[in-house]
Write a structure and sequence with these properties.
Oligomer: single chain
Order of helices and strands: HHEEEEEEEHEEEEEEEEEHEEHEEHHHH
Distance between the termini: 47 Å
Structural class: alpha+beta
Number of domains: 3
Mean pLDDT: 88
Number of strands: 20
Radius of gyration: 44 Å
Number of helices: 9
Strand order of the largest sheet: 1-16-3-12-13
Shape: elongated
């Protein structure tokens, strides 16, 4: 239940309204402080937006500091289905034209067993010994183990003799082969395939049964394979072999279907054989360089626009930006323009001295714009463009430092803990704290002032009530005496 006050009953005055108006006048300094608080917060927010835009500019500048950006190539094939060609990261490709003929694809050895009733069919206990290596000649007569490998033994014990269990045991052994079960109308067959392609990744399988039954076609012995034997329980489905190709008339062999380093800077994945040579053209690919230049330009323009918004004065609306005439904000823009205009004199610059030499120039509004025609012409010499953008050593003078490195270093300094933005924001936050503290002190004082006024008006009200009561008594006495 709300409290009931009698202030003003004795005097007939609207005490609450009078006190409210007096306190409104008294609180003028607090109103001023609140307006100042709003202004300070607005300026802090404005600097936050500038910091965000500058951070984006730093990231876009730093994006040029990667070797994988430079020297990329794109490749076209007269028949794209023949091979898939990609640039090798970190390598400088060489433009040129090449003839590619594919005589054979690399293959993995595959063998299969005779048909069993199902994958649950049982064999016998024993040991499978798997060796990786190369079968010599055709037909094979000898087997040479692969260098750096050793035999892998797979023990098949009690409860592990089903075809499915043997498959799982082989796969768990990491012997360089993969086992699987293929089921058709004839039954279930165990297949083994080399994990990797190439002639050196062929394999043989020797079997030792715990209790030999004397029949090589039954029990665990049915999974033996030896290409040099007159007959082998497991049958060869596909022989292991190397890829064979001819590049510019030079014969190439490879254990895999991917040719790395054959043509500088590109990786060629062979897809199918050909009956004749296919034309392969390698050309410089500057797509990513162009994309990152555009991203830098957009980040620079975004920062310019943000600073302009925060510092401008609109003559029509007579409204000033939150940071109008702020030396820190204006100084950032001035420094950015200086970085753009100072010529590059670092090693490797050649004829490229300014960003405008590669098509990036400032227009009448102070924003950057890009001429793709000039950029394409400059990229005919990509090493000079690279130096212009990210050349120079750390700590070198501005003139000897590439433009993207300049802006990255400029942004790092401006955004650092001791940089101008942090210092200016820190000053504003200090002002905000003092303002908040002052408001708190005034609030306490105003509470005391309002309490004092209410006590004074209550006392006045009581005196007026007494006077009114006395007046009423006198009036009554006069009426009784003379009435």
């Amino acid at each position: 239940m709300g409290s009931i006050t009698s202030s003003g009953l004795g005097s007939g005055l609207d005490v609450s309204s009078i006190i409210s108006q007096l306190m409104t006048i008294e609180k003028q300094p607090l109103t001023t402080l609140k307006k100042e608080e709003t202004s300070i917060n607005a300026r802090i927010s404005s600097f936050g937006k500038i910091q965000s835009a500058l951070s984006s500019l730093r990231d876009k500048s730093a994006a040029f500091n990667t070797s994988s950006l430079w020297g990329r190539t794109s490749t076209t094939l007269a028949d794209p289905s023949v091979a898939t060609v990609t640039s090798v990261s970190g390598q400088t490709g060489a433009a040129g034209s090449h003839a590619l003929q594919i005589d054979a694809l690399a293959a993995a050895q595959t063998v299969s067993s005779s048909a069993f009733a199902s994958s649950a069919a049982t064999l016998s206990e024993g040991t499978l010994t798997i060796d990786l290596g190369t079968w010599s000649s055709t037909p094979p007569t000898t087997f040479a183990p692969k260098a750096g490998t050793s035999s892998v033994s797979v023990a098949i014990g009690a409860g592990e003799t089903s075809l499915a269990s043997v498959r799982d045991k082989i796969n768990a052994a990491n012997a360089g082969v993969t086992a699987g079960i293929i089921t058709d109308a004839s039954g279930a067959r165990l297949t083994l395939r080399s994990t990797a392609t190439g002639a050196e990744n062929a394999f043989r399988i020797a079997v030792t049964e715990t209790s030999p039954d004397g029949n090589a076609a039954t029990g665990l012995s049915a999974l033996a394979y030896d290409a040099s034997a007159p007959s082998s329980p497991m049958a060869l489905s596909q022989a292991a072999g190397n890829a064979r190709a001819v590049v510019n008339g030079i014969a190439i062999t490879s254990a895999s279907n991917t040719l790395d380093g054959v043509v500088e800077g590109v990786s060629i994945k062979l897809n199918k054989t050909t009956t004749s040579a296919v034309e392969m053209t390698v050309a410089a690919d500057h797509t990513d360089v162009k994309a990152r230049l555009t991203e830098f330009m957009n980040a620079y323009n975004g920062l310019v626009d943000q600073i302009r918004t925060e510092t401008k004065y609109d003559a029509e609306t007579k409204v000033a930006g939150k940071l109008q005439a702020d030396r820190t904000a204006v100084g950032l823009q001035s420094r950015m323009q200086t970085l753009l205009y100072e010529e590059f004199s670092g090693a490797g610059a050649g004829t490229l001295k300014r960003l405008s030499d590669i098509g990036l120039s400032i227009n009448a509004t102070g924003r950057l714009e890009l001429s793709t025609t000039r950029l394409d012409a400059a990229l005919a010499n990509p090493s000079q463009v690279k130096e212009l953008l990210y050349g120079g050593a750390t700590g070198a003078t501005t003139a000897q430092t590439g433009f993207m490195k300049r802006f990255r270093q400029f942004a790092d300094t401006a955004l650092g803990t001791e940089g101008p933005l942090e210092a200016r924001t820190g000053t504003l936050k200090g002002q905000l704290k003092r303002n908040t503290d002052r408001q708190g002190a005034l609030d306490l004082r105003y509470q005391s002032t309002e309490e004092r006024l209410r006590k004074q008006f209550d006392a006045l009200d009581q005196r007026m009530s007494g006077i009114n009561a006395l007046g009423n008594s006198v009036t009554l006495m006069i009426k009784q005496m003379y009435g």
